[in-house]
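Exercise 7b. Backbone tokens:
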């Protein structure tokens, strides 16, 4: 239960949920373009799986943004003042990303950039867009944690994760479809327009001030404040264990289906239709799961489902038909949607109200660094040991995560029971 003296006023759920969805759709458009669309485009052009896996290096801005997150958070929550500046930071970031994509697309249409001869410039532009997105996401995370009360986090995380799946649809499937039919410059222009439109729900919002008791503390957001907290240390460990399997294989789903006989356009439809429907369905189920089994209990249940699907993919990687593999990928997308809702809900409960943006950014940065390492490793493993080995390894790693999270869930329930008994015993 929060202390009334430190409880800050919040916007209504009716205002917050559309804004959160728009924010996370925009952020995920960039990550999906770089981590899902690009590997498929490169593989379609004849690149090796190792080269396709190297696109995971574009996760680096998301992995190292914790270094400047405290500076962003200090500007978002000025010391000794009641105001919050999340809205300004988020909108500036979204519009700058849109401008970068617009510039790249216009340069391509004007004949200044060609994919075969100027790939370095195009990737550099996307890297800059990713850097801006990663920076503004610090404010996005702070805004989300600040404005969602604990009872709203389940459905708030549905909007957050569901928004991410819509962003994945636009940045991966949608980008591939437009690029395959009209060319990559038009795909960039379409992405730019989408990001501008997605900023609209945030425009009319006016953030309420912080509680005076919080502002009066004059806290200076910093990394050490977060890393010294046992809750953050436990959260980091469990997050990395829970994400290890999927980060090892995420960039290989598109190349896997291409190698099994799908065309690039079919892979675009796979990410643009099945991915979004299954992911959103899983996210909604995740919201229900979090309400029924709050905290880390929801996480270990989702991990059990993820391990089972990866095991089925490992067994079916060679003999299964395209239709069977498509069904399994759909199941995996649904389970991942459920898992992210559960994970984000558990991690938001750990973030400190004094520097929510920094705390939650540390979690996401750690996950992004894991994605860089595992994306490159996944490409190497798939190239040399096969897709079946990759999926089987992901299943085994998920089982290890399941055991660790279930232990934490048990400790959480024991602590809660002890607190209840102490309260009744007074």
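Sequence design result:
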């Amino acid at each position: 239960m929060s202390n009334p003296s430190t409880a800050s006023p919040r916007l209504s759920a009716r205002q917050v949920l559309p804004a959160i969805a728009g924010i996370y759709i925009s952020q995920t458009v960039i990550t999906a373009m770089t981590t899902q669309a690009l590997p498929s485009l490169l593989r379609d052009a004849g690149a090796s799986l190792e080269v396709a896996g190297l696109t995971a290096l574009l996760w680096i801005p998301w992995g190292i943004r914790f270094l400047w997150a405290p500076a962003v958070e200090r500007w978002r929550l000025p010391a000794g003042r009641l105001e919050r500046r999340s809205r300004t930071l988020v909108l500036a970031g979204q519009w700058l990303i849109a401008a970068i994509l617009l510039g790249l697309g216009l340069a391509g249409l004007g004949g200044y950039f060609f994919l075969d001869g100027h790939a370095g410039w195009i990737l550099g532009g996307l890297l800059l867009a990713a850097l801006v997105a990663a920076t503004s996401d610090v404010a996005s995370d702070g805004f989300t944690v600040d404005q969602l009360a604990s009872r709203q986090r389940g459905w708030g995380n549905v909007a957050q994760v569901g928004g991410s799946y819509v962003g994945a649809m636009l940045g991966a499937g949608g980008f591939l479809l437009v690029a395959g039919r009209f060319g990559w410059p038009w795909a960039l222009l379409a992405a730019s327009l989408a990001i501008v439109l997605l900023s609209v729900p945030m425009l009319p919002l006016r953030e309420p001030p912080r509680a005076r008791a919080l502002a009066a503390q004059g806290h200076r957001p910093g990394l050490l404040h977060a890393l010294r907290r046992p809750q953050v240390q436990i959260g980091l460990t469990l997050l990395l264990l829970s994400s290890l399997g999927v980060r090892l294989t995420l960039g290989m789903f598109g190349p896997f289906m291409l190698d099994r006989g799908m065309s690039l356009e079919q892979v675009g439809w796979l990410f643009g239709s099945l991915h979004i429907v299954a992911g959103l369905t899983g996210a909604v189920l995740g919201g229900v799961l979090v309400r029924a089994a709050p905290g880390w209990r929801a996480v270990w249940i989702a991990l059990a489902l993820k391990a089972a699907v990866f095991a089925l993919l490992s067994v079916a990687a060679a003999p299964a038909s395209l239709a069977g593999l498509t069904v399994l990928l759909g199941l995996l997308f649904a389970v991942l949607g459920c898992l992210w809702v559960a994970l984000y809900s558990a991690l938001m409960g750990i973030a400190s109200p004094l520097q929510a943006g920094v705390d939650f950014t540390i979690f996401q940065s750690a996950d992004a660094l894991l994605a860089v390492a595992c994306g490159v490793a996944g490409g190497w493993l798939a190239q040399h040991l096969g897709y079946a080995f990759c999926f089987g390894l992901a299943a085994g790693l998920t089982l290890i995560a399941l055991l660790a999270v279930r232990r934490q869930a048990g400790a959480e329930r024991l602590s809660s029971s002890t607190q209840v008994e102490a309260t009744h015993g007074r």
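Instructor comment: Residues 387-425 form the longest helix (39 residues). The chain has one domain: 13-421.
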